[in-house]
Amino acid sequence: MNDILINKTISFFEKSFGSTPQKTVLSPGRINIIGEHIDYNDGYVLPAAIDKIICFAFEKNNTNTSKIIAIDLDDEFEIDLDDEIQLTDKVWTNYLRGVINQLKIKGFKFEGFNCVFSSNIPVGSGLSSSAALECGFLFGIRELFDLNIKPVDVALMGQSAEHWVGINCGIMDQFSSVMGKENKVIKIDCRTLEYEYHDANFIDYSLILFDSNVKHSLMTSAYNERRQQCDEGIATIKKNYPKITSFRDCTENQVISLKDKMSKEVFKRSLFAVKEIKRVILACEALDKGDIPALGKLMFETHKGLSEDYEVSCDELDMIVDTLKQEEAVIGSRMMGGGFGGCTINLIKKGQEERIKKQLSALYMETFGIELKIYDVKISNGTSLYTA
Ligand code: GAF
């Protein structure tokens, strides 16, 4: 599947610049098994890179200006690397400007380059196309100019680029895009950035994504608001339990004891965070034991928390999860990513996938008049150089 994308990107580069690329980079999107809205709350997450990618082709151009072409958008921009880097109205370019800005802030030496890229990661589906864009672009510049940047720092600088654009995201998306490994999920401790790989063996179940095909525009403001509410929650906890600095060191009862000292929203967000951090630990143990029904149950619980307490779901995502919950063949289902649209992640009994896909698509169309998109994803390697 990705061969077509890679060939398209390389031949577009050759036509545009009359030369073959010096470096070609593959940068994946990600899924997250469990641990949602927890990366910026110092918790654990369980994501993985997938086989949906952005392909970048690069060459040095011996000037101080870079030219970048987005094939899918039929758009391009040029940037003088000596100028101050600023946000523009062309939103997609800002993620890349943000990366260049990071490199300049950190004092890395690089010159002008030409770059062409193309993607098969659906945008706005909660598969983190923006992290793939930032990290793949940065990885390519690193390779082209032989910059001494460790993989984890590629992820951290990608995250800073996203903050610069305006989304105060955690580290999960960039980390999993860069550090992903074939057939492994990554348990990341988002407080220390320690991580370990676990086998992604779902035994009798297939991992399938249902894309609601909706993108409610609240996303950026609501995301930043959730972060702020969690900061408020943890500040109240600290004031009353001075030894606790993070939700992961807090019990549900401690949060409940502070119910009257928090706004209704802050209380609900805090309780969700404490419960979700515990669920990730249990989910990882269940996966290691091959207890997929236990893992699935935790995924359903996460969805309920995201919908009722964290309030980042929407009617379309709730309908998908509620419908699948009635199905014996679906062992786990939940919304995935930032929320307000995008995908659900689902574990479906092998052999039953096609029936469920067909029935859900028909019901989804009947209910919302919207086509349900479906992705069968493979857990794959993180950002890498492509060699033919
Ligand atoms: C978005 C963010 F970018 C991540 O950092 C993470 O918080 C996620 O939403 C929710 O778990 O993808």
Automatic annotation (TrEMBL):
> Main EC class of this protein?
transferase
Q: Which GO terms describe its molecular function?
A: ATP binding; galactokinase activity; metal ion binding
List residues of the GHMP kinase C-terminal domain. 285-363
EC number(s) in its UniProt entry? Answer: 2.7.1.6
Please give the Pfam families that the UniProt record associates with this protein.
GalKase_gal_bdg, GHMP_kinases_C, GHMP_kinases_N
Q: Which residues form the Galactokinase N-terminal domain?
A: 12-58
Q: Of which family is this protein a member? A: Belongs to the GHMP kinase family. GalK subfamily.
- Which Gene Ontology biological process is one annotated for this entry? galactose metabolic process
Residue ranges annotated for the GHMP kinase N-terminal domain, each copy included: 94-181
Name of the protein in its database record: Galactokinase
GO cellular-component term (any): cytosol
Q: Which UniProt keywords apply?
A: ATP-binding, Carbohydrate metabolism, Cytoplasm, Galactose metabolism, Kinase, Magnesium, Metal-binding, Nucleotide-binding, Transferase
Tell me the domain of life: Bacteria
InterPro entries in alphabetical order? Galactokinase, Galactokinase_CS, GalKase_N, GHMP_kinase_C_dom, GHMP_kinase_C_sf, GHMP_kinase_N_dom, GHMP_knse_ATP-bd_CS, Mevalonate/galactokinase
